[in-house]
Design brief:
The chain is an alpha+beta fold. The protein folds into 3 domains: 238 residues, Alpha/Beta hydrolase fold, catalytic domain (Rossmann fold); 88 residues; 218 residues, Jelly Rolls (Sandwich). Strand 9, helix 12 and strand 10 form a beta-alpha-beta unit. The longest helix has 23 residues. Helix 4 packs across helix 5. The N and C termini lie far apart (52 Å). The strands form 5 sheets. Strands 12, 13, 14, 16, 19, 21 and 22 form a 7-stranded antiparallel β-sheet that branches. The protein has a 5-stranded mixed β-sheet with strand order 1-3-2-4-5, with helices on both faces. The chain has a 4-stranded mixed β-sheet with strand order 8-9-10-11, with helices on both faces. 21% of the residues lie in helices and 26% in strands.
Length: 584
Amino acid sequence: MRDGVMLATDVYRPAEPGRYPVILQRTPYGFRLGQGCFASGLSGAMAFWAEHGYVAVSQDARGTYRSEGVFRPIIQEQADGYDAVEWAAAQPWSNGRVAMTGTSYMGVTQWQAALTAPPHLVAIAPGQTATDYHDHWTYVNGVFDLWFGQSWPLAFFAPDAQRRRLIAGGTAPEAAERAARAYLAEGERRIARDWIGQVPLADFAGFRELAPYYYEWLAHPSYDDYWAAVDVEAQWEKITVPALVTGAWGDLFHIGSVRAFSGMRSGAGSEAARAGTLLVMTGGGGHGQEGAVSFGGAGDRDLRELRLRFYDHHVKGIANGMDREPRAQLFVQVPPDSGTEGSGFWLEGDAFPPAGAVPARFNLASGGGANSRWGDGMLARDEPPHGPDDSFTYDPSEPVPALGGGLCCLTLGFYFRSGAQDQSTVERRDDVLVYTSAPLAEDLAVIGPVKVRLWATTTARDTDFTAKLVDVHPDGFAQNILNRVVRARFRNGSKAPPSPIEPGRAYEYEIDLGYTANVFRAGHRVRLDVSSSDFPHLARNPNTGGDPATDGRFVVAVQTVHHDAQRPSHVELTVLPGVGAGGR
């Protein structure tokens, strides 16, 4: 690198001598997911590209596994990405054309490198990753993503840092690795038992030596220069190469996938980048797996073969029809009427949302008792919002438990029941307001963004409101589709400066739930759950108005949701007429 730090790099070359285009992967996961020449896991999979006429290069990110330096996630990847691309282009086995590949954090390394516009970078293919690392990686609309923020470093980086530190102090590598794995096992036992429950958040001391960037994240709750420097969504014009963007509807980074497609198509810095970018959204849960509802593989695509065609076209210049591929290829999920085996179909076009999509508004209504699934909360598509207010008590010491959705990370399978799960148990609580439509008379294809506009009052100086879109099957299974949160002080948007609220005053909150492609079948019901916590996925708001990173007090708040003519709380779906469970 430009500062003299050496990064460990594996190179796979085709058997025939010569100069070839390069496909570069940059990863911090060598210790846990496998790096090294033909090792099982990430590095070994790179040999596929060498078998198809590329030089495949897999590199350990700075400060991880075999590389030198100190690891600072995301912040370090622009300069290192640029240097790695240009190094690969200058090697004797390279013809000077470089593409990048990889999912999750390996998607981060691609977007960050692309922002620096290395002269020899010609294409990227980021999968299941984010593009705004404040709003959709570390925080969610101003709320710290606690489970990800603690489990991601624990699962991958803190054990590696422990191993590296021991080796630097003279411990034999084998003994250091055993110690690192023991550290991980102890952390897995303790994270749910006591780590996530510590308040204030910054009092958690477990990462001070091994993952100090955790405290950097806590120190920057608002969008500032720290986040702006790496925010891809604010800098699309700097990216001049096409991107094959892949994601999954249930993935914790699905919003980043869709925003990447939209941002590149409208704002990238070259016509080649704008015209050449594609979006492929599969079924399933991505990082968090499918959960209790399966789509039987119908939502799968051979993404490696698709990436090969993409690289062959943009890197090698092969006329293979990639330029005629539909720009947006979407798997539309169709949950079952009963049981857990769903279905679905592929919808292709050149835009997202698809051409012809229109908004459909469901208004909140009740008799004043929408608490729990046994309450009287309603979603009315053809009626105005009406009825008396609904209220619940939010006690941060008794938060609503997280259930389902895009969760990450620990060892495979160690999730808080991620993906699609039956929300009926959570909906028994009186601090969850439940609004449910009548059974649908016909299929309703929701394909696009989903937003909730909530008029609410709180007795607190600051608080959170959560919203969850649910598909209620005829057999009673309440399947979560989307869920997100808004912090009151960030009601003007996560990039806007925080704005205090007045207790007792009604405010309108917009909760951007993200995007989906889901058919609510005839006989199913549309449901919206509203509460103020989703723990331990999201850090609790203590309701004090202070900084949750340093404030250890809890205040109980009374939350009131309004739905009358002057304060019309509602959920707005994006629906595609003429599309049902069988497609068009």
